[in-house]
Write a structure and sequence with these properties.
Blueprint (H helix, E strand, L loop, with lengths): L1 E7 L2 E6 L7 H21 L21 H8 L1
Antiparallel strand pairs: 1-2
Amino acid sequence: MICSGNTTAGNTQVIEHGLTLGSNPEFTASELVAYARAVHRMAKLGQHGAKTVFDVAPGWLSPKSAAQLRAELL
């Protein structure tokens, strides 16, 4: 996927994203498990109703705590 845009006149920015999969079924299954985990966590906090992938914050997808993610990724 390639996204482009202008920050100001004459300054174009381009972002490229790529994905290479060894196993598409395994990748798909891991994504489904991650979203199921996130929805379960959200339900425990009283967040109910239909959700889209855009409604789920990336931090909810990881089995690690928010503190662990900050320590390892920041």
